[in-house]
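Can't paste images in this forum, so I'm doing it all in text. The chain is below; anyone willing to post the predicted C-alpha cells underneath?
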Amino acid sequence: MIANLPEIDMTQTKAGPDIAAGRLHQDAYAENFSDLHPLLETHEAQVEADRCYFCYDAPCMQACPTSIDIPQFIRQISTGNPDGSAKTIFEQNILGGMCARVCPTETLCEQVCVREVAEGKPVKIGQLQRYATDHYMSGHDETPFTRAASTGKKVAVVGAGPAGLSCAHRLAVHGHDVTLFDARDKAGGLNEYGIASYKSVDNFAAREVEFILTIGGIDLNTGMRLGDNLDLAELRATHDAVFLAIGLGGVNALGKDNESRGGVLNAVDYISDIRQADDLGRLPVGRHVVVIGGGMTAVDIAVQKKLLGAEDVTIVYRRDQDRMNASKFEQDLAQTSGVKILTNAQPHALSVEDGHISSIELERTTTGEDGSLQGTGEILSLRADMVFKAVGQTLVQDDLDASLSLEKGRIVVGADRRTNLGDVWAGGDCVLGGEDLTVTAVEDGKVAAESINAALSA
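Text version of the structure:
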C-alpha cells in the first residue's frame, strides 16, 4: 500500500504559480515510492497457490494475451517448484517479471478467475507470477533457453521496448543474429521510462533487459533513432528482415492557446524524469496540479505528483468515470492516494500569469444519444501551477517508408504482424489495433518472431 504523505509545510503558499523542489522531508520519498505490491514470502505464495482450482480450459489462461499456462505455473508453485513455474511463464512471456508488476491483471486473468466470479476474491495470479519469476532471476544469471546454432540470417529490431525485446529474444533462440536499436540511452522502452516508479523498483527494468540479452546473438545499439541516424530503407537492404517496435513518439495536444507556456507539460516526459531521477527531492512540484486524461498515464502522473508533495491533484476526464481507460483498480489507487477525479469536463482555456500557467477553465460536458460528446456551456475554473497532458500519443510518421501502409495513424499489420512490405514486421503501440499494455506488446514481438523465423527458414 502506498504510504501516507507526511505533513506538507504550508507556510510558503502564495497566490501565483508555486512550483518548488523538495516539498517533503528527504526520507519520505523512499517511503512513498516503495514497492506497490511487495514480493510474496514463500509461505504466502504457497498458501495463495493452494487457492487455485487448476481449472481445465482455465478462463484465466484464455484471458492472458501471451497464453501463459497459468494453472500449470501455479501448480508448480504449490508443489515447491518455483524454478519450474518460472520456466512455464518464460516459455510464453520472456518479460513475465515486468508483466507481473505492471499488467492490469484485475481486467485480464484475475477478472475471469473462477474464484473472482464465485467469491469476488480471485487468486493473486500477478503476485504469484512475480514470485516465480523473481525467484528464478535471483538464482540464475541467464534465461532458461539454449540458443540454436547460428542460421547466418540477420534481423534488425528497431525499438528495445517490450515488443522489441520479446521479438529479439525469440529470434535469438532460433539462431538468428539480431541487431537491436533504440533511440534512448537505455533499453527497456516504457518499462524503463514510462511507468509509475512504485510499480517497478530496484532498477528491475534494466535488470530484466540484461537477463534477456544473456541468450546471446543480440547486439544492442542505443542512441539510434529512426529518421535521424537510422534509415528504414538501409536496414532493409542490409538485413534479411526488419521488426518495427517504435512505439508512439508524439504527444497529442490540447489545442488551446497558451499551451506552450510554462507549467503545461507532457505527462510521459515527466514520468520519464521521475523514473530516471537520482534524487526525487530535486524534481519541480506544483502545489496545484491538474491532469487531463483518463488512462493509465493520467493515473501514473497524478499519483506520483501527489507522492512528490503536491497539495492538490485533480484528474480531469471528459466523459463518465466508467468510460475511463484506467482500470477500476487504478482509479481506486488514485483516489485513495488523495487524487480527485473530475469527470464530464474538458479543457476550455488556459490562464497565464507572468508567462506561466495559473489556472485552467473547464467546460462541463454531456454525452448525446448518438454517443457524441457535447459541451454544455457551463464553465468552471481550477487553480493550476502545473497542467499535465495525458491525452494519448501519436506515431511519428515522417521517419517511415512512404510505401508502408498506415491507417488511423498506425502501421497496418496482419495476424502474423507482417506489414505490406514483405520483409518488414511491426508490433506494439505503433500498430493499428495495438493496446497500451506491456503484455500485448510482448505477444506482438513473439508472434512476429515466429513469423520471421518461418519466412527465413522457408
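The domain at 42-139 is CATH 1.10.1060.10 (Fumarate Reductase Iron-sulfur Protein; Chain B, domain 2). The two ends are 52 Å apart (CA to CA).
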